[in-house]
Design a protein that fits this description.
This protein is α/β, with parallel strands linked by helices. It has a single domain, classed as 3-Layer(aba) Sandwich (Rossmann fold), CATH 3.40.50.300. It is 37% helix and 24% strand. It contains nine helices and ten strands. It has a six-stranded mixed beta sheet with strand order 6-7-8-3-9-10, with helices on both faces. The protein has a four-stranded antiparallel beta sheet with strand order 2-1-4-5, covered by helices on one side. Helix 6 runs parallel beside helix 7. The termini are far apart. 39% of the residues are buried.
Amino acid sequence: MTTAAAAVYDPQLPGGAPAVAASARQVTKSYGAGETRVTALDAVDVDIQRGRFTAIMGPSGSGKSTLMHCLAGLDTVTEGRIWIGETEITGLKDKQLTRLRRDKIGFIFQAFNLLPTLNALENITLPMDIAGRKPDQAWLDRVVETVGLSDRLRHRPTQLSGGQQQRVAVARALAARPEIIFGDEPTGNLDSRSGAEVLSFLRRSVDELGQTIVMVTHDPVAAGYADRVLFLADGVMVDEMHAPTADSVLERMRRFDGKRTS
């Protein structure tokens, strides 16, 4: 491997080899002004590695969801710069940002956001149908197989369990082959068994499909499926962990809570 190929991608250096799927540089997000000003993110720097599963954790009000929304282009920043791949999204016009989110980003949220009048397959392909794009059938078949929906494609949401509905949402996010998928508490509305199934499918999508996933969660068990966990507190990136387990994440969170109350 050449030195150039091995170098870590810096989105501020044009022509660099992109080793990251998303980046933030000195990102600050504030609400209000003067004495009522609240800083949700305070000069955050982060690189999201391509082809990896990253979890973002922190106590309520830590800024974890705000960071995800800013990285995904769902919210604007007060200061700083954000890239998706090599494209800087800060400063993009609404139409450009909408196109980028449609073409390069997938989303999975707590609410399944499925249309009740469409069956599972139609819900999966809906974003591409709206964009006037035909799905890659081989890829679509692989995604459906990966999330275990082959025998449920003709079922409507009311005929599916909560776990199956969330799997449809996962497949919908994967089907367009986005550069990165963001999940905001994607197992928050599921029981432990269904949540474990969905997390396993997310893990498989990284390992077998090469997907990049960023997941906000408060659950150490969910974070244990990730390759890397980023910890936020009071809008600041305070720590990270590689190859996490549920126990190691829980212990790290307890240490943060101890510091905050001491």
